[in-house]
Amino acid sequence: MKPIPLNKPLLFMSLLALCNPIAGNSERDEKAYIVQTDRGLFIGQIDNGQLHGHGILFLKNGDYFIGTWTRGSLEGPGAWYERLPSSDSLHFSYHFVIFANNRVSRKIEYEYCSLDDIQMAWSDCHCIAGNCISGQGMQFNGMLQSGSLINHRLHGFGVWIDGMSNIHVGTFKDGQPNGQGVFLHIVENGSGIEKGIYRGIWRPNQTEPDQVEYYLLPLSILRR
């Protein structure tokens, strides 16, 4: 697949997203869209033309917001990946926060497990907010998982982030991508940061998707 030319990928993605949802087929609207908004690039769920459900927003200043949108407004617990000042590379600090009206309202007080917590189950140590056993929640163990969780594994629609270079938005089964989804791969090379989006279909026990399309993002996205 050839990447879309750098001078016009986002317009194409926006139009394609509105007419061609790419993930899920449950009773709930579990579809992942790629949409350019006035605040940045959004990948996630949409309902009736509004951001609605789980997703990730790549802000124009280089930060990421991960959480749940309700009729266009980012609300409730989520994560804020903050690009470090004067950094053109993949260096972030991350915060677990409560969003209100599309903005960070306050940080969530959270203590990581220590060696003294060995009597506590691994999963109990890493659930940041919500219901990580059978509901909507967010957990972190070096990898962020936000969305529909069963027994501390993504099961249904969600967002998965491994470090800063691999981000998956779509449907999961038993913690693994399953079905259609969007995979964002970010790598540093000698000339800067290369960013690409894969739209594909993940099969059980398959680490690489059946690639559908590939987009090369402009350098103005995900970078200060």
Automatic annotation (TrEMBL):
It is found in: Cytoplasmic vesicle, Secretory vesicle, Acrosome. It comes from Leptonema illini. PANTHER family: MORN REPEAT-CONTAINING PROTEIN 3 (PTHR46511:SF1). One of its GO terms (cellular component) is cytoplasmic vesicle. This is MORN repeat-containing protein 3. It comes from the Bacteria. The keyword Repeat applies. The keyword Repeat applies. Assembles a suppression complex (suppresome) by tethering SIRT1 and MDM2 to regulate composite modifications of p53/TP53. Confers both deacetylation-mediated functional inactivation, by SIRT1, and ubiquitination-dependent degradation, by MDM2, of p53/TP53, promoting a proliferative and cell survival behaviors. May play a role in the regulation of spermatogenesis. Coiled coil: none annotated. Keywords: Cytoplasmic vesicle, Repeat. Its main location: cytoplasm. InterPro entries: MORN (IPR003409), MORN3 (IPR052472). SUPFAM superfamilies: Histone H3 K4-specific methyltransferase SET7/9 N-terminal domain. The lineage of its organism: Bacteria, Pseudomonadati, Spirochaetota, Spirochaetia, Leptospirales.
